Structure formats: C-alpha cells, structure tokens
Amino acid sequence: MRSAVRTAVLLAAALLASAPAASAQRDNATLRRPRADTLVPDTLPLRRAGVRVCAGGDVTLGTNLDTGWVWTASARAGYRVAAYPDPDSLLRPLRPLFADADVVLLNVEGAIGTGPAARKCAEGSTHCFAFRQPVATAAALRRVAPESAAVIGSVANNHARDAGPAGVGVTVRHLRAAGVRPTGADTLATEVVTAAGDTVAFLGFSQWAGPDPRDLAAVRRHVARAARRWPRVVVMMHMGAEGGGAQHTYDATEHFLGENRGNVVAFAHAAVESGAGLVIGAGPHVMRAAEQYRGGLIFYSLGNLLTYGPFSLREPLNRGAVACASLDSAGRPTDAVLRSTRQRPPGIAAPDPGARAAAAVDALSRADFPRTGVPVADDGTLLLAPADTLYAARRPARRRPSIRAPGPAGSPAVSRQRP
To answer: What angle do CA 393, 399, 403 make, to 5 degrees?
Structure first.
C-alpha cells in the first residue's frame, strides 16, 4: 500500500515539475516579435551590437565661385543673406542626429578651396552651377560627428570638379587635413577602423568622378574586391534624375538634362549581390524609397541634408534625412532608423519633428517596391525583415516599356517605366 502511495506522490511531483516547462513552451510558441514602433528606447539603454553607420545626403556649405545668388536671396528674405556663413553654425543643429554613430558618411556636393579656379559654366548658362565651399568646411564636416566617430566624405558626384580637375585633388587634401577620410576619388575602397576596433570599407560611385556606376561589370568587380578583404562594405551612389518629379524609383535608365544618369535599381542590386550590406543614394535632391534586397539595405536617395546657396528649397526639395544602420559582423544591417530634417532658404537645416521625410520614404517604399520595400514607423524606425528571408527576393517589378514623363520645370523629360 505504502509503495503505491509513494508511486502516486512521485508521479504528482513529476507532473508539477514539468508544468512550468510546458507552460514556457506554450508561451514561446505564441511569442511574437514586438513591432519596432512600440518599443520604448529607454527600456534597454544598451549599446547596439555591431558598427553604427549614419549617413546624410547632399551637403553644400555655400560657394565662393559665384555669389550673385545672394542679391536675389536677400531681396526675398528682406535682410542681407551671407554668401558663406560659418560652416559650423550651419551644421550645429544636425549634430544630435549623428550622436550614436561610429562612422558618419556624407556626400560632399562641391569642391573645397579658395583662390582662382577654372571656369565651369558658360556665359549665360541657366542649367549650370559651380560650387566650391570655403576651406573651413572640411573641419566643420569633421565636427558634425562625435569625437570618437570617423567621418567619410564622398567626392563621387557631379560637383566634385566644379573648380576644375585639379580642384578634386585640392578638395581631397583639405578633407584629409581636417580628419575627414575621402572616398569616391578612385576605385579603391576607403578603410575605416572604429574606436572599438571594427573595420568598414566605403566606396563612392558617380559617372563624373570616381568609378562609373553605369558599368555594372566594373561595379561588381570593385565591390567584390572590397568584400573579399573586409566583412562590412558600404557603397554610396550619386545617380538618377533630379528634382521634385524624381521621387519615384524605377528599374530603368533615368535621364536628366540630356544625360544618361543610369539605372539606380540595377546598380544597387549589383552592389548588394557583390557584397555590400548598405547602399546610400544621393543626387536626386529628394527622398526616395528604401528596399531590403538579399540581406542588404538600400536607401535610393536621402535628399538634401544641407544645401546652402542658390538652391531651390520648395517642397519636397527641402526634405532630407540622416539614415543610421547597425551592421553586424557579416556586414548585414540589423536595425535602422531615419531621422528627418527640413531646410528653409537659403539653406538653414534642422531636425524635423514632423518626420515628413520618413513618412515619404514609407509611402514611396510601399508604392515602388511592393514586395521588398521597407515600411517606416512613425518614429522613423525601419521595420526590417529577418535577413534569412530575403535571399530569394527578386527584382521588385517587371520591366515594362518606358514612357516619357515630364521632369522638373525647365528640364528635358525623364525616361521612366510606366507605373
């Protein structure tokens, strides 16, 4: 009898002991990853794993080649507008947006220097602009980031040669002297070792300076060469049509002012397929979609971050963003956020509490890349899909016959696919 009672007691104890494990299994089976926009940042104040790269779009801190625009800007503003104010004062409001960066990447849209320069624009030209920023710009760009962070300045753009071919070398020297590491002047990647000892390689592409992004075979070769040496590769492209009519992204060649500006989707996909984990777009001067493709994250354009001078800053050209992404040891993004900015004439930038740029990216991503576009939460957080679900992704849309769509006022039509 006692043996039977003992057996019953032991059986009951075993059942009680197994109950928490079974409950835990049921809880785990129903556990869902919380939406990124429901997380409270202060709940877990731990540093993100991996390398934090924060990138901005086009940056021009005035021009000393042609200051005639100042008279028109002053008349509109009702006060005397400075031709090129202190660069630090222009960038200071944006510094908090880069506070958590290990590396900052910016598109340096124009030369840096002083003194005589080769003339770029013909007399009476209405579609030509020459930008050369004051020498103090280089040091100001370095100070936009925390002291512990590295700063990369891409000179792969259509204004790098505005002070002539020799001006590119002068710009690179000023950047290096200020502690900014240039990229995009040639086909070689720029290596960065972070304060924590992690390495990241950066490549800049444009058809005017640096490797030509329209040559996809060369793009694959240059990116793959970097990926073989470094686990984290970040690529910046300066390509695509420009202006308010260029917000949508198409898998087709774009044209602007008679120039073939390349196929941004083909370029970005080739870069990711060759080993890039993060691709940053600049050049269109407007925000564009974000896409996850085969484990990589692509921002097709981050718009105008800070463009002081003779620029149109009407909607949506006044919108920009700082995109921050954490890259793991394999170079793939694990989390990302868009921090929206806004400018007012003649180029005074500040964070935008209304987050209009992030909202635009959310809408454009859903419209232009229905299957691979990245949703953006109200707080700017990108709702990334797990990387292991992305490798079977195909191009986002079928190729269709192109049509001629109107470009910005005063410019030729832009070649696009039918929506």
So the answer is: 145
